[in-house]
Amino acid sequence: MHLMLTTDTVGGVWQYTMQLARALARFDIGITIVSVGHAPSAEQRTDLSRLAHLRGHFNLPYKLEWMQDSRADIAAARGELCDLIERLRPDLLHSSQFCFGDLPTSCPRLVVAHSDIISWQQWCADATQSDPDWQAFISGYQRLVQCGLHGADAIVAPSAFMAASLSRDYGLTTNRIQTIHNGMSITPRLGVKEQMAVMVGRLWDKAKNVSLVAEAVQQAQTDPTSTMRVIVAGEVTPPDYNGPLISSGALIKYLGHLTAAQLYPYFARASVYIAASRYEPFGLAAVEAALHGCAILANDIPTFHEVWGDDAIYFAYNDATALRHALTDLLIDDTRAAHYGARAHLRALTRYSAERMAADYYQLYRQLLPSHLWYNQGVNMTYSDTSIPYGV
User: pLDDT digits over 24-59, tens only?
Assistant: First the structure.
């Protein structure tokens, strides 16, 4: 089988694509990856070089659909992707962009809804919502997404929360959307934990709620006995932004974008991961942190309850004071932090592996394609629980 995967090089979609592509290798699926946006970085080119079943990579250097003034770029990207499909003849298009869901192609089209602006806006409202230019963009964006979703042969959401949002905002019946949780398989560095918390999130994205963490840390600074340490990693500015950068405070340190090799040692040392997002369709960074044994301290939103259940600690929704108290208590209680770190670790291992994600997608591919394309009818589709080196 030949699968064409579209992705982008901004944020977690690239990481999702690499994890899925690697895990699909066991099914002997040839993969062509098409990225949209800026050309892959050196680190991302290395990711591509490590894919065992990669047939090729192509980059479409156009704006992403959530960017304003992107209409002409989207039309150009659609045209070039149609040409690629005509030339390469993939059996299935697996798209991380809504705008490719209704392409006039002969192969089936699967669209994965990692996030969308309409649901983002409902949880991250700000003054720009009343701006006429923004409203015009949103109107066009909603039409584009609706056409893509209704034109797709299958739709996947990474959480039931996201599936419900799509159904509500785009007039889809719930049986049109399948939930497949994201997955991550890495080799964690389980080191000696310190009284330190870490968070990953784009500082320019209101959904990630970095400002809430900064407010909680600022409150802690008024206490001379506080030993709170918080590390924040993530892009400081949006693409093509040339404004001022945010500065570090005494108890919070902004490290900017880090590669996995740079980030994972912080996960290994930190006892707590702060999942502060006010809007989150899944939250893959929290899975990475959990695999390193970090306790998950999460904002009280539906997604985190769906993903982490009772294996995380929650603070009152968007309440900086509640976050400060919960984080302080967790950082000074090593036993409790280790307990929840072990619980999060076990949950991530057994529920959110890349292999389990790939198996779910494999089953969906089989539903979309004729049986003669399947060469691995005897592949073992079951996964036993993974043992962990310490108790819960």
Answer: 999 989 999 999 999 999 999 999 999 999 999 999
385, 12 contact by CB (below 8 A): no
User: pLDDT band at 248, cuts 50/70/90?
Assistant: very low
Domains of the chain: 2-183+353-373 (3.40.50.2000), 194-351 (3.40.50.2000)
63/263 Cα distance (integer angstroms): 28
Rounded to whole angstroms, the Cα distance separating 310 from 344 reads 9
pTM beyond cutoff 0.85: yes
DSSP secondary structure string, 87-116? HH--SEEEESSGGGTT---SS-EEEE-S--
Residue at token pair 């942190």: 289
264 token code pair: 């994972």
Q: Which helix (H) or strand (E) holds 364?
A: helix 354-368
What span, in angstroms and rounded, lies between the C-alpha atoms of 139 and 135? 6
In sequence order, which ranges of 89-185 are alpha helices (DSSP H)? Answer: 117-123, 132-151, 160-170
Taking CA atoms, 212 is separated from 209, 233, 258, 278, in Å, by: 5, 15, 21, 10
Residue 38: partners with Cβ closer than 8 Å, 6 or more residues away: 9, 10, 61, 239
The Cα-based distances of 116 to 101, 146, 302, 378 in angstroms read 14, 11, 16, 38
> What is the C-alpha separation between 256 and 325, in angstroms, rounded?
26
